[in-house]
Each structure stands twice: as C-alpha cells, then as structure tokens.
Design brief:
Largest sheet: 7 strands, parallel
Bound molecules: zinc ion
CATH architecture of the largest domain: Alpha-Beta Barrel
Strand content: 15-25%
CATH class of the largest domain: Alpha Beta
CATH topology of the largest domain: TIM Barrel
CATH superfamily of the largest domain: Metal-dependent hydrolases
Radius of gyration: 20 Å
Length: about 400
Amino acid sequence: MRIKNAEVYDVRQGFVKKDVYIEGGRFVEEARCGGGDAARGAEQIIDAAGLYLIPGLVDIHFHGCAGADFSDGTPEALRTISAYQLENGVTSICPAAMTLPEDALTQICGNAYAYALESGPLPARAALRGIHLEGPFIAADRSGAQNARYVRCADIALYRRLQEAAHGLIRLVTLAPETVGAEAFIRELHREVHLSIGHTACDYDCALRAFEAGADHVTHLFNAMRGFEHRAPGVLAAAFDAKHVMPELICDGVHVDAAAVRVAFRIFGGERMILVSDSMRAAGMGDGAYMLGGQWVQVKGRLATLADGTIAGSVTSLMGCLRAAVAAGIPLETAVRCAAYNPACAIGADAVCGSIDAGKDADCVLLSKEGLEIQGVFRKGVRIQNSARPI
Ligand SMILES: [Zn+2]
C-alpha cells in the first residue's frame, strides 16, 4: 500500500511531503515495497493530498473510556477501551491501573496478559503495549482521585508478584519518593521498569534523589504534587535538572492552564514532554455520574470531579489533548512528537510504534489541516472504519 501526497510527520525532519509505503502491516522503504506489491499485483494507493499523516498516538496514562475502565479487570473492558482509543487515533495503549488492593491489581494484570494473548480479528483495536501501575505506592495526602484507603508503602515483593501476574507487561510504575521504602524500590527496580514520580508531596531534594537513583518520568506534572516556588522549587525543578526525566502533561484544557502548558513545553522542550489523556470511563459518554476506582465522579462538559470538587480523570481523548496543546500555542510537530514518539520511548516501545519509520507497525492517522479532524486511522496498515469521529 502507498499513501501519497500527504504532509507526513517525520521525527527527524518535522512535516515533509512524501509517500509512505506499507507492506505486511509495517512501514517499509520504497524499493522493498515496490517489489512486493508488484509480485502480488496492483498496488493499493491512497491519495492523501491536502492532509497531514501522523504516527498513531500512544497513550501511556489513561484509565478508561466509552463506559469501561482498565481497572474493571475484564476482557470486555479492554476490548471496549482499545476499540474506542483506536477510533480516536490512539493506536497504542499502556493503560493505568488505579490504586487498589493487591487482589484487584493481580486480576487487572492477569486480565491484561490474557487480553494481549487474544488473537481477535486485527486490526480493530489499539495495541496493548504495556501496563502503567499508578500506585498503590503513592502519598495518601496527594492521592487526588485515587482512593487513599488502598495506598501502601513501596513494596518490591508486591511489585514482583504483580509483574509475574502480568507476564512482564508492567512498563511504568508511579510512586511517591518520600514514602517508606520508595528509594530502595527505585534503586532495586529501575533497570527492570520505568519509574515515575507522582501523587507526591516531596520537595526538590527528595525528587532529585529519586531521579538520581533511577526514576526517569513524572506523572501528570503539576497535578497531585507541590507547585513551583522560588525557595521550594519542587518536582518541576528537579525534573528540569535531571535531564533524563520525561514529564507527562494532561493537556485537556481542564487539568493545566494553557499558560502553564506553554511554560512546561518551554522548560522541557519537545524532546522530553509527554502528552497523556488521563481519561476515565466517562470519556465519550457525555454528562452524568460514573464510578472511578470505587469513587463517584460527576462529569459536566470537559470537567470530571469527585464529590469534594477534586478534579478526577479527564474525559478528553489524547487526540483532543493534542488539539488543546496546539490551541495553547504548541507547534503541531512538537505536539505530535509528544503524543506519539516520546511516550513510545518512555515505555520502551519505540522499536514497534511511535513514528513512521520502516520496520515499525504501520499505525498512522490522516488529519485535516483545518481543525485537525481525523480523516482515517490505520492499524497495521488496515484502515479502520468509522474512524472520523472527532472527540
Ligand atoms: Zn493520577
């Protein structure tokens, strides 16, 4: 297959006008593709003149959507959320488990592994690239929409039991570095799994120690942590000083002010920022009351709150967050990188997804230049039906 005449996002060059070749579900170099298609007969050509072609987005921090939640721990829930994500241009997912008891987390991890083994009809779903454990090793006083009742100290043995249930699918763990055992946890595990600072009351020094010990990620920068002050610079400044660290940002127009989005991108640059949706089951469902991690959440427009007014997860897809970043003044090529390539790198999945490069899964999205509306989604080179619903 050849997609021709689009303005294609290239990680090294930004947007360039070129043809993209797909064979066997992967992006290929032109020469290789030509031979293969000729051998099989007519080449399928899609004329994408006037459109952008970007890599499929990679959401490494969201909980659910379309009425289902990863923490439901059922195959149906994973099928629902991965189908919805795919329709919205998110071709790879690393959903986040909430802070829950061990038996629930074991079920969630085992369910994800069982789902990953499913050989269901491709390509109607986003690819499951991993699991993000958002807790339970967080700070009870910064639990946000996580249920503080299930918070516990960093526990290497518990992590290993969960990773065993997940058959190695856990790629990212959010923890609070000031809690008992957290530093030892980071030192012991940072070569096995990506570790993220989040839901934390830690100060600059504590955050920097965690980064020096091996943590390399920040969970939803600004949210559920101390702010930046000139004599108490906090996680933001520690992440700035530790150059290997990649911070997430929930850019849904609710969690972070547009001016703070601009500041974060200016501080960290397009090579480090990661856009995440942090969406919950109400995404795509409209206004109403929904259960999130055992707590009721009220949704009105783009705002989802607990009974006490705490902002819960978002109801915006990652593609909606990409548009919000662009509306906040972030260049499109930077926003695309931060919603596709950077998150793929952050969970070690950049060999298979995150950019339009030969050898990777042929996951990509056609966008209109006006409004960045989805005009087509491809997963492993197959065009998804109904993939033009703007969220
Ligand atoms: Zn969170």
